[in-house]
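Q: My collaborator sent me two sequences in one message, no labels, and asked for predicted structures for both. Can we handle them in order? The first one she listed is below.
A: Yes, handling them in the order given. First sequence, followed by its structure tokens:
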Amino acid sequence: MATAARCLNATGVAMTRPRIEAADLQQVANVVIEGLAAGKPVEIDGLGVFYPDEEHGPHGFRFEPRRQAQVFIAYVTEDAIPASRLYDALEDAGFSPWMDVRKLLPGQNWPRAIESAIESSDFFVACFSRNSVDKKGGFQSEVRYGLDCERRMPLDEIYLAPVRLDDCRMPRSIQRHLQYIDLFPDWQRGFRRLVHMMRRGPGWRSRWRQDGRKEDATRNE
């Protein structure tokens, strides 16, 4: 049975979107109710945010669907500073970045929560560097899982975006199939290329067209 993985971000209580089965719905509802009762917004990754709203009664709430594309950031601990810089820049650019130290709570099932975040993300940014290329562990597992998800995407969809933080060698499996972007020596130029690449994908365009139609329908009601 799939379980709901809870996490916390700067806005309040957050929850990674699980692959929910019927038996899990009550557990998900309980998480939302607990957060709202505490007066905190509850985020379900990939879906949106529940906000406490007294205008709808003493236990009222409102739901705002997520409109930003979610971007999973894979990195190693040694690169936490540049990865955090990337997180902040993506957030400022209108994306919804996902980074373990910003989202996860101590004690939860980290591997499953990370897999769920990768599955629900619109893009996967893998940060390669001299620190990560030859290091065994979670980063390599995340990249392999991201590659598995990328193989299930339509051929013209952009999903996995490798970036280099320094002049490291890129794995052959990445070089053979994917174009990577250098975030050095000119970080700003590299970041602009990354944003442009993600925004030009057909998935991004169709997603924002749908959001625009929803907003127009709401205004016309």
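Q: And the one she listed second?
A: Here it is, processed independently of the first:
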Amino acid sequence: MSSTPPPVHAALFYAAEGLAVFPCANDSKAPHPMLGGIGGLHHATTEPAIVAGWWGRDPRARIGLNLGKSGLIAFDFEGPEKGGDPIACRRAILEHYGPGALPPTWEAASPSGGIHILYLAPHGEVPSTLPITAPGLDRIRGDGGYVVVPSVVAGEVLPDAEGRSWASGPSPFGASVHAAPAPEWLADVAAEVTAARRAAKATPRKRGRFSIETTDATAYGEKALQGLWLEVAHAPEGQRHAEITRAAVRAAALEAGGHVSGEKWREVLAHAGGVCGLSEDEVGAVLEWATTTAQVEPAGPAREKGAAA
């Protein structure tokens, strides 16, 4: 059995094709500690000397692909290990948007059985979520997001050392070097999302009331939580799941920045989710995902050492 080539070979290949890469930790999907822990994915580059230097420091680092810098978006379908079903996700999209809704393009399988489907980024806004549901239909990642890609080269369909692989067919190493253009229906979804947000903002809102003690949040965190509660509690039907998903990511980032406790933001968003009409199971699934899986970076002003929460 042949050994798998070292990840640096694939990282350099991606960079040469204009795909901006950066190292992720060799035991997680988080940006590698060598990047300093601040703005990890934004260090992504196509400069071969920098790429070689990173993997020279940690030859086992996983390969992160900055989607925005690479001009890509990615449909993210969670695998069975995380309660997802990529086949059901694909079927739900095809049934809702038509049989040609997901044209052939780059597809990568993850060790958990999930799928990333990559397309060239369209002009204009890209919706982060879709108004349909399916097990593991996580989100659409784009500018400001990233995915961990296979560490295989030379058209290998075989998985890398961790089980990631490109599907047979179009891939960065195949005959079709470029990913396919994003489906046109995404622009329609983005327009619907924008219109719904504008309508929601035009609706008079009642401010929520929460007992947020100084041990639960900073003044900045409290104000931010109130805003997130309003966004979720007044989300229009058809956009409720998208709003609570977006709010949960922002709240998790506030927690990472030391501005709110995890227990408090989950309590606030659980209440808001109930107010807007989501079920406990729907809310619980989103909050669990944001707590354990979502890729976030610290948000809010830097905390002073010794400052009270």
